[in-house]
């Protein structure tokens, strides 16, 4: 793990400034002589800069993104608790943790933070910019802010604006956190009950009915308590508390809520039309948090984009788990086997199927 320290103010989208920045990042492999083997991975909500840790099916020796072939970069996002400046960081002005005084950050702030890192690393262009969920939100922002930075982008299980449905899930989680009177304290164990409850809520959106029915149903039909599904929810909450900061979770959920690539740019359609990178958009049929209509919206807005929908038992978490399916789509995409505009008819056919199977999918209205 590496850390870049930037000893100058960083202006945030809300108008406030951080006095300095720390950016935690990992790199794998070596930059080739042509400098055309860079893959930049943008991570999701509670992940970190070590992509080998949270995406082991795709990143690592012998995997699709093999360090022997690619120079891979992944940086921790602003507001997190894994090395990049966040609520648990020390404010140099007070020499205490920011805590509840940490300012509101946005996905655009995260991207601008990583643009600083890219410049320091001497990376002017990447072969592929890729991310899922909140990582995909960063990819879209970056591709709009700097159209020439990525030759190709791949976004998985993400959207161009966060939906009312997604915001509602996040607000329910924040309500759980805020119901814990200790959530803003900076003492050991503070916010434990609130964060564990929030994670239990989140799990319902990361998976789906079928996932729980098949994996968490009790074989003993005589039980009156201590159900498998109940234990699973508590376990997931405890696991997150053991590795994540409650204030970071609260702030990052706020950042996700404010994601809207059309803000200040004349709307979604105009913003997405700025993207010039070859684009692969991947949705997951069983994803209830980021329904496939949201990926259809993204694909409609990016000229010449390729839309693919995969089947997965795991719902939204499929973007982390279905490595073989994802690699099967990335291979031809990176090998240029699909012409830049040659997938238009297939894209239109997928759109028709999506439109026929829903009355109103969040994110598709107006397109």
TrEMBL record:
Gene Ontology annotations for the cellular component aspect, listed alphabetically: cytoplasm
Residues annotated as domain AB hydrolase-1: 38-320
InterPro entries with a match to the protein in the record: AB_hydrolase_1, AB_hydrolase_fold, HAT_MetX-like
Chief location category: cytoplasm
Biological process according to GO: homoserine metabolic process; methionine biosynthetic process
Sorted UniProt keywords: Acyltransferase, Amino-acid biosynthesis, Cytoplasm, Methionine biosynthesis, Transferase
Superkingdom, taxonomy of origin: Bacteria
Gene3D superfamilies per the UniProt record, alphabetical: alpha/beta hydrolase
Pathways involved: Amino-acid biosynthesis; L-methionine biosynthesis via de novo pathway; O-acetyl-L-homoserine from L-homoserine: step 1/1
Localization, UniProt: Cytoplasm
Any one Gene Ontology molecular-function term assigned to this protein's record: homoserine O-acetyltransferase activity
PANTHER family: HOMOSERINE O-ACETYLTRANSFERASE
Subunit structure: Homodimer.
Function: Transfers an acetyl group from acetyl-CoA to L-homoserine, forming acetyl-L-homoserine.
Family to which this protein belongs: Belongs to the AB hydrolase superfamily. MetX family.
Record's protein name: Homoserine O-acetyltransferase
Organism expressing this protein natively: Flavilitoribacter nigricans (strain ATCC 23147 / DSM 23189 / NBRC 102662 / NCIMB 1420 / SS-2) (Lewinella nigricans)
């Amino acid at each position: 793990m590496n850390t870049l320290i930037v000893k100058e103010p960083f202006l945030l989208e809300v108008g406030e400034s951080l006095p300095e920045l720390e950016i935690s990042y990992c790199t794998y492999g070596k930059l080739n002589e042509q400098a055309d083997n860079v893959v930049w991975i943008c991570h999701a909500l509670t992940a970190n800069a070590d992509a080998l840790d949270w995406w082991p099916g795709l990143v690592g020796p012998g995997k699709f993104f093999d360090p022997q072939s690619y120079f891979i970069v992944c940086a921790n996002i602003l507001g997190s608790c894994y090395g990049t400046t966040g609520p648990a960081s020390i404010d140099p002005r007070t020499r205490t943790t920011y805590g509840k005084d940490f300012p509101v950050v946005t996905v655009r702030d995260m991207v601008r933070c990583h643009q600083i890192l890219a410049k320091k690393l001497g990376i002017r262009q990447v072969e592929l910019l890729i991310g899922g969920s909140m990582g995909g939100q960063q990819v879209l922002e970056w591709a709009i802010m700097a159209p020439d930075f990525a030759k190709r982008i791949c976004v998985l299980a993400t959207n161009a604006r966060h939906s009312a449905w997604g915001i509602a899930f996040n607000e329910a989680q924040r309500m759980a956190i805020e119901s814990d009177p200790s959530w803003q304290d900076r003492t050991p164990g503070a916010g434990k009950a609130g964060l564990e409850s929030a994670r239990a809520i989140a799990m319902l959106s990361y998976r789906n009915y079928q996932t729980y029915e098949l994996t968490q149903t009790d074989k003993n039909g005589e039980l009156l308590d201590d159900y498998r599904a109940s234990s699973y929810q508590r376990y997931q909450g405890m696991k997150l508390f053991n590795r994540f900061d409650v204030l970071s979770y609260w702030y990052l959920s706020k950042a996700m809520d404010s994601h809207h690539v059309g803000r200040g740019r004349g709307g979604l359609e105009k913003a997405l039309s700025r993207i010039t990178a070859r684009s692969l958009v991947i949705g997951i049929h069983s994803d209830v948090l980021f329904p496939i209509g949201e990926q259809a919206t993204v694909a409609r807005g990016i000229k010449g984009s390729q839309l693919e929908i995969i089947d997965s038992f795991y719902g939204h978490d499929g973007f982390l788990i279905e490595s073989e399916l994802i690699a099967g789509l990335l291979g031809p995409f990176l090998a240029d086997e699909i012409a830049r505009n040659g997938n238009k008819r297939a894209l239109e056919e997928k759109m028709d199927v999506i439109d026929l199977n829903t009355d109103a999918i969040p994110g598709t209205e107006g397109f």
